[in-house]
Amino acid sequence: MIRRTVPAALVLRLTLAIVLDTAVQILWKLAVTQSAAPESIAAAAAAASREPLFLLVGGLFLWQLVNWLRVLEASDLSYSHPITSISFVSVFALSVVYLGESVDAPKILGIALVFAGVWFISRTDHDSNAANGSTR
Amino acid sequence: MNQTALGVLLVILCAIIEGIAQVFFKKSALVATRKNLWIGAGVVLFILQALIYTGALQFVEVSTAFPIGSIGFVIVAVFSQRLLNEPVTGTRWIGVGLILLGVSLLAARA
Questions:
Q1: pLDDT score recorded for residue B3
Q2: In the predicted model, is pLDDT for residue A107 greater than 50?
């Protein structure tokens, strides 16, 4: 299969997807640690609806969903989904900087493997439906 | 079945549910009508898997659940190939495999 140039808009949307995924993970963890342990799921949902941080996470989730749907309009799921694994690297990097998480050889190897995997994914055609001339 | 095994199975179930949700989201991009049905179904599944994952963490540590959950990358690739007829080539499988290993190393003992 011929690999075509990836549109700049798709690159930007994938970058946004990774940024939003990172933000959601970090802020959700922050929101959970700052709130009291709920007695039930209903109590947790009620508490979350009043907390600004949870509301922010909810807003980011919605933005993430809308952006992700736009990504999937322009690319294969098996192309874009693995690329978002870069958010694992960004979450780890922020954890190192702000939470003092340690960096060891396995973590460095993990980062290298993720980037290597993303590089292999990027060598494939990003949208098989467009390549096949499929109509929606 | 002990609690750890149950927790592991629940995490794998979450990865499968998320994979199905992702397929639904992609289907919404491929169809001309009823897009919102596919999107709505995907959102419901995402919420369901989040609730199940929360329950799974009662039985396994996050540092155990996270690497296991990374199997979701393989599941999405398989579902993409089987359900969406996407061409998951050998190169793409190598990428998925490397990412799976990398995420497992990053997430272990997180």
A1: 85
A2: yes
**pLDDT exceeds cutoff 90 at A26:** no
Could you write out the DSSP letters of every residue in A69-107?
A: HHHHHSS-HHHHHHHTTHHHHHHHHHHHHHH-----HHH
| Number of domain units in chain B | 1
- Structural domain of B36: 3-107
Q: Phi, psi (5° rounding) for residue B19? A: -60, -45
Shortest distance, CA B11 to any CA of chain A (angstroms): 17
> What pLDDT shows up at residue A19?
96
Q: Which of A28, A79, A120 to mutate to test the interface with B (most CBs of B within 10 A)?
A: A120
Residue A120 confidence (pLDDT) = 94
Instruction: Tell me which residue has tokens 């009043």.
Output: A50
Q: What is the reported pLDDT for B110?
A: 47
Selected residues 74-103 of chain A with any CB under 8 Å from a CB in chain B: 76-79, 81-82, 85, 88-89, 92
* Sign of the dihedral defined by the CA atoms of residues A9, A26, B40, B66, in that order: positive
pLDDT at B92: 94
**For A26, what's the count of Cα atoms within 13 Å in the CB-facing half-sphere?**
19
Joined together, the tokens standing for residue A90 give 């960004």
Residues A23 and A2: their CA atoms lie apart, in Å, by 35
Interface confidence (ipTM) of the complex: 0.89
- Taking the Cβ of residue B62 and every Cβ of chain A, the question of whether any pair is shorter than 8 Å is answered with no
Return the amino acid letter for A31: A
